[in-house]
């Protein structure tokens, strides 16, 4: 089983530290108070404070702003908490799936491949909705770049691939794929203290652009919008990455504007860490589709496919 570069990076360094420190940081974020957070962690306040300090030393950045009450996480603290909790969630999910497969060794384990940005938030919600509607299945996820996912599908190393498409790039009648959800790319910026977008396209200067690289499939999906609204001449590329998570962190740091999947950044918008910018018409509608390699299917995967084919065209989950 492979996983995203973010999680592999996390696991590499997790060998050197106590991963439960992220739970401590979460409690401090929730309470805004070292004493109350220490009580929730069943620790003395000095011991709890030392644990938070050890996490900051490991991260190499100040994670908590102690200059005010209640205390607040810094931007780096929010980023580290988000990455840490998502990685812990993946670890716990994989552990539960391993235990389930060991308890039921004759059950087939369905393997899904997914683009990184889909694997973080949409996939866990969709899988839970699938199991609620279809019934429990044993599964695992390989999060990778789309070309690698499709190669794994062709080679029979994964049973299904979950990937972005658009109404123009795939037909809902295509027998090789099923529409399972909707998303959209939203141009977002770090907010000002007043809540407006730092980069609002209202000045004559070129807007710094955090873009997906040329090899990223999302780049091709964005191209009609960038061309149709003559946006390329208004943007100045300052950073490229094929992973939405990396662009998201740079956008949150205030380095520029990025078009990012709503399913990925909805919590950031709700928390006021990112705000939509530009015109609403610049948003890019996306399909989320499930692909299979029919010649390599088996009884379990055919049953799941047939079940999904009978569902309404908008899939198991609502837009966004």
Structure description:
It is a single chain. The chain has 320 residues and is an alpha/beta fold. The protein is flat, with a radius of gyration of 21 Å. It has two domains: 5-84, Orthogonal Bundle (Arc Repressor Mutant, subunit A); 108-320, 3-Layer(aba) Sandwich (D-Maltodextrin-Binding Protein, domain 2), CATH 3.40.190.290. Strand 1 (64-65) and strand 2 form a beta hairpin. It starts with a helix and ends in an 11-residue tail after the last helix. The model is unreliable at 1-15 and 170-175 (pLDDT under 50). It has helices spanning 5-14, 21-31, 34-40, 45-59, 75-103, 116-120, 122-134, 146-155, 217-228, 244-252, 262-270, 299-309, and strands at residues 64-65, 72-73, 109-114, 138-143, 160-165, 177-189, 207-211, 235-240, 258-261, 275-276, 284-292. Strands 3, 4, 5, 6, 9, 10 and 11 form a seven-stranded mixed beta sheet that branches. It has twelve helices and eleven strands. Helix 1 (5-14) crosses helix 5, helix 2 (21-31) crosses helix 3 and helix 2 packs across helix 4 (45-59).
H and E order: HHHHEEHEHHEHEEEHEHEHEEH
Query: What is the annotated CATH architecture of the largest domain?
Result: 3-Layer(aba) Sandwich
Q: Indicate how many domains the architecture comprises.
A: 2
As a whole number of angstroms, the C-alpha radius of gyration is: 21 Å
Instruction: Enumerate the spans where pLDDT stays under 50 for 5 or more consecutive residues.
Output: 1-15, 170-175
Structural category: alpha/beta
Number of helices: 12
- Write down the CATH class of the largest domain: Alpha Beta
Portion in helices: 40-55%
Instruction: Report the CATH topology name of the largest domain.
Output: D-Maltodextrin-Binding Protein, domain 2
Oligomer: single chain
Beta-strand residue percentage: 15-25%
């Amino acid at each position: 089983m492979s996983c995203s570069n973010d999680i592999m990076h996390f696991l590499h360094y997790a060998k050197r530290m106590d991963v439960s420190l992220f739970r401590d940081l979460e409690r401090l974020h929730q309470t805004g108070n070292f004493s109350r957070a220490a009580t929730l962690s069943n620790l003395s306040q000095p011991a709890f404070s030392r644990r938070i300090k050890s996490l900051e030393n490991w991260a190499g950045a100040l994670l908590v702003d102690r200059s005010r009450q209640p205390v607040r996480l810094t931007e780096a603290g929010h980023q580290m908490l988000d990455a840490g909790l998502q990685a812990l969630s993946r670890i716990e999910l994989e552990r539960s799936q391993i235990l389930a497969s060991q308890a039921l060794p004759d059950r087939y384990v369905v393997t899904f491949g997914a683009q990184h940005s889909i694997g973080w938030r949409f996939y866990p919600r969709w899988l839970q909705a699938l199991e609620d509607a279809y019934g429990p299945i044993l599964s695992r996820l390989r999060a990778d770049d789309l070309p690698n996912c499709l190669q794994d599908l062709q080679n029979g190393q994964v049973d299904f691939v979950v990937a972005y498409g658009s109404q123009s790039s795939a037909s809902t009648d295509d027998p090789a794929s099923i529409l399972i959800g909707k998303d959209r790319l939203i141009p977002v910026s770090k907010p000002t203290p007043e809540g407006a977008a730092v980069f609002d396209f209202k000045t004559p200067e070129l807007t710094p652009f955090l873009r997906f690289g040329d090899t990223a499939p999302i780049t091709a999906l964005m191209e009609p919008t960038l061309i149709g609204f003559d946006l390329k001449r208004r943007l100045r590329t300052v950073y490229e990455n094929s992973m939405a998570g990396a662009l998201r962190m740079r956008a949150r740091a205030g380095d520029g504007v990025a078009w990012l999947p709503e399913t990925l950044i909805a919590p950031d918008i709700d928390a006021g860490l990112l705000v939509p910018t530009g015109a609403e018409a610049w948003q890019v509608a996306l399909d989320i589709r499930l692909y299979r390699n029919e010649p390599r299917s088996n009884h379990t995967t055919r049953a799941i496919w047939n079940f999904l084919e009978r569902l309404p065209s908008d899939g198991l989950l609502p837009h966004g």
